[in-house]
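Data availability (excerpt). All sequences and predicted token strings are deposited with the supplementary files. A representative entry, Primosomal protein, is shown inline so that the format can be inspected without opening the archive.
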Amino acid sequence: MNKKTSPLDDAPQHVKLAVDLIMLLEQNEVVPEDVLKALEIVKQDFSNKIQLEQKT
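Structure token line:
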């Protein structure tokens, strides 16, 4: 039996997450400008979380 694999099967977790997010946003027809604005907020939030973790 040949098991079909996707190139994503061996991809790093952050690449898989990016692909999932792109698919979700495209399926919901989110305006690209809104996506970029939202991603800026998300990036800042997670950057803050990393800084807090490094302080503890």
